[in-house]
Amino acid sequence: MDKNMTIDDYSYTSEDIQVLEGLEAVRKRPGMYIATTSSRGLHHLVWEIVDNAIDEALAGYASKTIVRLLPDDVIEITDNGRGMPVDVHEKTGVSTVETIFTVLHAGGKFGGGAYKVSGGLHGVGAAVVNALSQWLEVTVRINKKVYFIKFSNGGKVEQKLTEIGQCKEKEHGTTVRFKPDPLIFTETTEYDYEIIHHRLQELAFLSPFLRIELYDERKKEIMSEVFEYEGGISEYVSFINQDKKVLFEKPIHIKGSEEDIICEVALQYNETYDSNLYSFCNNVNTHEGGTHEDGFKATLSRVINNYARNQNLLKKDDENLKQEDVREGITAVISVKHPNPQYEGQTKTKLGNSEVRRILSEIFGEQFERFLYENPAVAKLIVEKSIVASRARAAAVKAREVTRRKNSLESANLPEKLTDCSSRDASLNEIYIVEGDSAGGSAKQGRNPKYQAILPLRGKILNVQKAREHQIFDNNEIKSMITAFGCGIGDELDLSKLRYHKIVIMTDADVDGSHIRVLLLTFFYRFFREVIEAGHIYVAQPPLYRVQKGNISKYAYTEGQLEKVKNELGDRVNIQRYKGLGEMDAKQLWETTMDPERRTLLQVTIDSAREADKYFEMLMGDEVEPRRNYIMANAQFVKNLDIA
Length: 644
Hints:
The chain is of the alpha+beta class. It has 20 helices and 23 strands. It has four domains: 24-227, Histidine kinase-like ATPase, C-terminal domain (Heat Shock Protein 90, 2-Layer Sandwich); 233-400, Ribosomal Protein S5, domain 2, CATH 3.30.230.10; 411-542 and 582-637, Rossmann fold (3-Layer(aba) Sandwich); 545-577. The strands form five sheets. An eight-stranded mixed sheet has the order 5-4-3-6-2-1-7-8. It has a five-stranded mixed sheet with strand order 9-10-13-11-12, sandwiched between helices. A five-stranded mixed sheet has the order 17-16-18-19-23, with helices on both faces. α12 (437-446) crosses α18 and α15 (511-527) crosses α19.
């Protein structure tokens, strides 16, 4: 306590308690409701309204959802469901539509009467979307009549619910159109077509009874796509595996229900070494897993081991196959529909219902075992791949021992090539993964030695998409990175032991540099996915050009910036094109690429593990044809191909 202040200065009374009415709380603290006001939060608004439309389909009342991206950052979502109720709500005294969009937690998903299963239960509802919009309009078609209501300035009623026309009896449903408030979403109010495309396609795979249409009407040339998959999650698995060699042609599809809980699994093996498991509850992506994933993993292992023993594919003295062995090369989608889902964790993306583990295990186990006995040729392929994976795992265990460290901070255990920083505060520390000894030398001289470490790599690292683990852990460059990071790898990864909270890939601005960057990202994606998800991986952006006139030097990071700098400095400038980091001296490298005050770092994120896996496999995998097709389709967009 400050000695000059009295106890009265520290008083805490009822006058200090602020009461926010209605939607005011949402606008005051939007992060409490949508986590962030960045692009991710902006798109969360779309998911809230889309989820409501999908819930009508889950309940059996709708067959179509239409999403339109309109000019001026407006979005429109239409369904052909029952139409929101328009009668006066007993408790609020205003129309039910107005109640839904102005009262937090008002909706038809709490009592269990209107919706047996709902994806919207995990969200914050239409009222929050209204609160965070500059304006929002709702059009309802119900009982042969059309109603309209409009809100503005964060959810205030501008026009009360009004009957504006009539419609045919079959023309029922709801349309919500809104514009996000730029005062809330200060970073961006522009919707990303690819993000919306991905989510709507995913929802269509998970809802085989639903047709989803997407229109982008923001430019003169309208883009449109239709997502409709009768095969449901089987088509989803085939879509994910489309650029991979599969062990058998048709995915295994299993479905059943118990206690009003519907469990569905589709799986297919491919010739890669990765395991790709995607789980959902009521169409919500549970990327942290949960009881449905636990039940699937344990049952998959148990059934395959039992089958292998009974068919003498595993001998008496052989060890049982482990869970990671039977999941090598698998692509699986698990979808659970639950009337009362319970989620764990802050992000609400881990399913916690204990009964789901047993129910999914029983349904999946019985039908999967039957499939193996009825399809012995396919069963043998699965078991043989798992046995090969088991042997490779044993070899990898020996190789992995080399990468383990007793103490991640003991400098004696660090790789020889690492020039470490003096700080032991991981939250401040950065490590630059640098291409070659020449650039490494400049980086060492130009860095801030207190918190910046340098690890030069020699040549191109191993393509981990084409290698087994024991080969990966035998690679010297990979061993150096694993040892330097100090947090372990794969299933043994412990984020709390990560020695640097910024891992920065710094490669040359040419074709070879881009290739090395992709190889590193492939490695991080496969073995350090948690580190990416935690936001610790970055890509440095070195300049392409140095423009000099007299004693004045400026840097350009793009072709557009180069033209701008040339115009600023006038005629007769000296332009130096940097093809390698080694061409810059220590001072230039610090000024352009390493100084936190002036550098540009791109944070690596995983918005879609499925999309990332798809492109990594296409560009880095064994199959040549998908890669050739991709290059042929996209070569037209390359303006300046730098062939070194």
